Amino acid sequence: MLFENVIAGERRSADDASRNINPSDTNDVIGEFARASNADVDDAIAAAKEAFPAWSRTTPLQRHDFLKKAADEVMARREELGHILSREEGKTLAEGIGEATRAGQVLDFFAGEALRAGGEAVPSVRSGVDVGITREPLGVVGIITPWNFPIAIPAWKIAPALAWGNTVVFKPSDLVPHSAWMLVDILNRAGLPAGVLNLVMGRGSVVGQALIKHPDVAAISFTGSVETGRTIAAACVASSPMKKVQLEMGGKNPLVVLNDASLSVAVDCALNGAFFSTGQRCTASSRLIVQDGIHDAFVAALIERMQALTVDNALLPGTQIGPVVDEKQLATDERYIAIGREEGATLAWGGERLNRARPGFYLQPALFTNVDNRMRIAREEIFGPVGSVIRVKDYDEALAVANDTVFGLSAGICTTSLKHATDFKRNAEAGMVMVNLATAGVDFHVPFGGRKGSSYGPREQGAYAREFYTVIKTAYTAA
């Protein structure tokens, strides 16, 4: 079956298409998805530009109703959408349904935000003058999303863009386009006027580049690699007119485990944060920074839990970890496992390819010990089920190691000490801090984002999302 692009409210085929393969069963072809051309992108931007004046002047209640209707359908179909997601991306069915549910919750939240746009009336320093401060939509927003959260991330970018009156040209990952296609279909069938939301699928080198360079695109919201993010930022600043840009680019997140931590809590946090979703989360706990006194017991307990994990087809009941998303990512994971060994770290458990009833990209979660924070496996984002244990002598060293990274997305600590928990929340150089919780797992109604090389531009999610999707206008009126 061919899934087409959606431009100006109409489905459009293409000369090229990608095959969407189930990573749990490579014999299962989910469908073929049209790859847009430069001309298709130009047409989508033109449609969004044409739709913008009328859409930006709709009432907040109208925008609320569109988003609320779409949210209700996503929630009603979350099991179907979760199955689609798990089939194409490889996360377990429970995780897939959970992500589809999150997409519905995000749409519902931003339906409410459309009614809370707000503004300010403030007294002027001059007599006889009134001052009003309002927020206005930007125009055409280009949205580029990754493969690891193929419905939740599109939802939390598209929903605020629409809620505050922008029009959208959306490019999902070429690797997992089915969930994105379904989301766009649901939103458009909720009654969005033609051109308000356009879907252009395909390669980043074609579709992404065309979006970034086009003068009629006012802003780009991107989630993906640091390298691509830097390229996008430079292009947006160099464009004429300059584009607003929002980048989420990954992490090398620390989980600190102190001697006074509950061992069971610490192991649960590490297991979830490092290995669930096959480690394919930008918030994954890839660096486990463990104090001397609890180190050996922690490693032993974590390995015991890892050995009991069921790695199998994402759609099977009882599967706890699904496959890696594709052969390329699996090769990357294996390359880093080899690098870790070459650097002198000890592969304490796992890291082997697995065979299952159906051909797929299966990998045992891997745990390294005797890791030095200067090693590549402790510096570079692997984006797979590979955890590194770094031994430290005390809290001060743990904090220093946690902050010794070019990234700053999420950081966690397991401790029963109020003193150390409070200090860590204040001094961890990350956009999000977790205490006795996994570093992965966030709420949708509060800001999401990091520091340093992890993020650039205004935060995503929650009411703070308006900072990116609107521009402030200050109006003066003689009384």
Walk me through this protein's architecture:
There is one protein chain. With 479 residues, the protein is α/β, with parallel strands linked by helices. The chain has a seven-stranded mixed beta sheet, with helices on both faces. Strands 10-9-8-11-12-22 form a six-stranded mixed beta sheet, sandwiched between helices. It folds into two domains: 2-249, Aldehyde Dehydrogenase, Chain A, domain 1 (3-Layer(aba) Sandwich), CATH 3.40.605.10; 254-435, Aldehyde Dehydrogenase, Chain A, domain 2 (3-Layer(aba) Sandwich), CATH 3.40.309. Strand 11, helix 8 and strand 12 (244-248) form a beta-alpha-beta unit. It is globular, with a radius of gyration of 23 Å. It has 15 helices and 23 strands. The model has no long low-confidence stretch (mean pLDDT 97). The longest helix is centred in the N-terminal third of the chain and has 22 residues, at 93-114.
Brief summary of the model shown:
This protein has 479 residues and is of the alpha/beta class.
